[in-house]
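> call design_seq(struct)
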């Protein structure tokens, strides 16, 4: 991380921690499962101050993807909590005028490394549950020195690509400079290929609500669609007794 300016590092870290993304940005996990994981303290990584509307940060969304992978390998609740605790370890403190400085967690530094330098990064979990975040060269060095024990390895680049690359298709933050949180969320919705229309309502000069309309796959069960969002309008079209199109408008209050 030595090649990254402190100001850029802090700016990226702030972007990663902002809880401004709704549940629609999370793929492959139902709202019921997310609530279960939240009750088990698996998520979120950072407590939200918002009331009513549940929002997630980019790191929250990435962590949910990591939980999915760990469960595929049979990791128990206790083991996943142990991994979470280590990925949240304060790995770097940037000195400032305050005594404490600015703290950045290990997982955030790893994601920033991927965005800024395009380096391959891996999460290594050994048989004792110890977690290391290493690049490819560090792993080779450990192998050559015979210091690498039996382990599980997760490709963090792949997890970023699967879970949050759709939000940041390019690592540069230049296009986001000067945007407020509300404007940033609108931009990300507009960049998504899932929505055919977006309606923005302003109040007092500020964005108040966002209504996003999308076509839902006919293969989705109506009950599942109803459970996915708290505020939505659903339009169903039938022809000859069969559902031919499901369209929904998701309403979010900023």
């Amino acid at each position: 991380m030595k090649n990254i300016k402190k100001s850029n590092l802090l700016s990226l870290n702030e972007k990663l921690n902002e809880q401004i993304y709704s549940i629609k940005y999370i793929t492959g996990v139902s709202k019921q499962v997310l609530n279960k994981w939240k009750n088990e303290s698996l998520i979120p990584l950072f407590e939200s101050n918002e009331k009513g509307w549940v929002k997630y940060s980019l790191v929250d969304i990435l962590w949910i993807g990591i939980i999915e992978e760990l469960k595929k390998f049979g990791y128990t609740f206790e083991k996943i909590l142990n991994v979470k605790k280590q990925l949240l370890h304060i790995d770097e403190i940037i000195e400032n005028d305050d005594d404490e400085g600015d703290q950045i967690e290990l997982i955030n530094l790893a994601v920033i490394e991927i965005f800024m330098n395009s380096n391959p990064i891996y999460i290594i979990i050994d048989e004792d549950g110890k977690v290391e975040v290493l690049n490819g060269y560090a792993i080779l060095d450990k192998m050559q020195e015979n210091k690498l024990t039996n382990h599980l390895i997760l490709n963090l680049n792949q997890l970023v690509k699967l879970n949050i690359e759709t939000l940041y298709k390019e690592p540069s933050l230049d296009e986001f400079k000067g945007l407020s949180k509300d404007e940033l969320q609108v931009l990300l919705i507009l960049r998504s290929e899932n929505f055919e229309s977006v309606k923005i309502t302003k109040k007092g000069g500020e964005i108040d609500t966002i209504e996003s309309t999308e076509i839902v796959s006919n293969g989705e069960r109506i009950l599942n669609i109803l459970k996915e969002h708290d505020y939505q309008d659903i339009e169903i079209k039938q022809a000859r007794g069969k559902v031919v199109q499901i369209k929904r408008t998701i309403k979010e209050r900023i």
